[in-house]
Each structure stands twice: as structure tokens, then as C-alpha cells.
Design goal:
The protein is mostly beta strands. It has 3 domains: about 120 residues, Immunoglobulins (Immunoglobulin-like), CATH 2.60.40.10; about 110 residues, Immunoglobulin-like, CATH 2.60.40; about 35 residues, no CATH class. The chain contains 2 helices and 22 strands. A 6-stranded mixed beta sheet has the order 2-10-9-4-5-6, with no helix packed on it. The N and C termini lie far apart (about 105 Å).
Amino acid sequence: MPFLEGGGDKFVRDLAHLYLFGGHPCANARSVPHTITLLEVPLWADPRREAELRCHYARQPRDPPLHSVKWYRDNNEIFRYTPQELESRAFNNSEVTISNSSCSLSACVVLVRPERGGARYTCEVSSEGPRFAVDKRSANMTLAVLPEYDPLITGLPTLVQVGETALVNCTSDYSLPAAEIDWFVDSEPQEDPLITGVTHVSGADGDGLRASWRTLHVFPEDYATPRGYLSLRCRATLPTRPPHVRSMAVRLNHFGRCGGGGHFCEVSQGDVCLDIIASARETSAFVTQMKFGAV
């Protein structure tokens, strides 16, 4: 036969290699994987409730049949659905428990109860041989209970007089994990431990949630502002992946220096400045003159 002459031996070798390692030459030449069309993994998982993982996939005409669907938590297989078998298999471990499942030739849904931390969940869909082609997609899910409310600032005085300090507190709602709290004065972070101290965390409640709080000592004369108030902001951050942030902002009204010669002023909600001019006389008697006028 002419095609065996010269390069015929190579053709036979290539054909044998294709049969052994690439499938029978008469088999479906496409041999592509089922395509994952939808992956739904919650961004946050409440340990008190089950989380639903959903994976949809499609088979195109002439594609090989579905071989299996597998779910992974990071690198560990936690669930497997094989259409040829009567029952699915769950691989429970100390980090996650499979409580229920519902799988078919087009979708696989599992209910999990994570025990701790965050993880990457992967759906892997493979087609029948000879190639057993695979398609897979992943998404992160973090074990967390988000606070229901914004942080609360308490202890705010109506007005801070010259030379006085204010002690305010910020409390973050119960959550998992507990929130880290940061203070800002006029948008500047307050990092001095003598001013802000540390974030305190409460004991766990019946669901394992914890509240946190942090105080702020404010000495208005340390901040250069002509407005008559300081803007205080408390930021509560859950160290999740990605971080979850909530905050609250208030104004701290205070008397501040608005000029030399012992002048002090307060800027209230309007644009009115109250000047208190104090002068001493040789008799040690003080005369205070109060006047109102535009700033």
C-alpha cells in the first residue's frame, strides 16, 4: 500500500500512540468537558445556618456524557456525585459538614455547615472518557456573622470648655469574628495608645458572637481647627476576606482659640461667634465684655 512506503511506519506508530493515550480514532474527536454555566457560593456564611453551594453545567451536542461532579474545600474533596452510582458521597471533616444535596445531569446543589474560618470552594465537572475532560470554577466563602447595626458612639459631651478633655466610647455590635475598632479625628487616624488604648472584646454569647469597644481621649486644643468643632469617626472592621466595614461619625463642639490676646470662640450650628474678652486691671478685677457679631 502506497501510504506505508517511506513514512508508513511513523504513521502506524502515531496511530498506536493516539489509540493508547489520546483515545480511539473513531471516538468522539471533540471530547470537551461539560461547561459550568453558573457557580453560586455565598460570600459570608453564618455558622448558625446552612450555606448553599450551587453549580450548574451544560452538555453540548456530541459531547461525552457526564462522568462526575466534585466539590472541594480548598484542596480537600468534600462531595462527589457520579451519575452511574446510586448514591452520592460526602466526605465530612472537622472543617465542614455536608447536610444535604441534590444533583442531576445539569446541576449539583449541596448544603454545608462550615465549622471555622474562610475557604475557597471549587466545583469540578468531568466528562466521560477516554479523555475525562474537566471544567472547574472556584469562589471564596468566609465564616462570619455581620453586625446588624452601625457602631455606636457614647459619652459625647454637649460642649468641651477650654482646658477640658472628652472621653468617648465606640461599641461595635455582636459579630463573628469580633470587630477591630479605629478612631479618626478630622479624618486623621489616632494611633497613640495613650489616646485610644486598645480594642476590648467581650465574652462570647450563646452563639459564639462577641462585641468590641474602644475609647478615645480628646483634648481639643491639640488639634488646629478654626471651626469650633472636631469631626470624630469610629470605624469597626471585621477581619474577614474581604474586610467588612461599618462606621459612625459625630461632631464634638468645643471652645477654641480664634485669635491672640486671650480670645476664645465657639462656632455653633449657625455662623455666629461668641467672643469672650477678658482683661485684667491693676485692682485684679476682671471685666468681661460679651458681644455678638458675624464671624
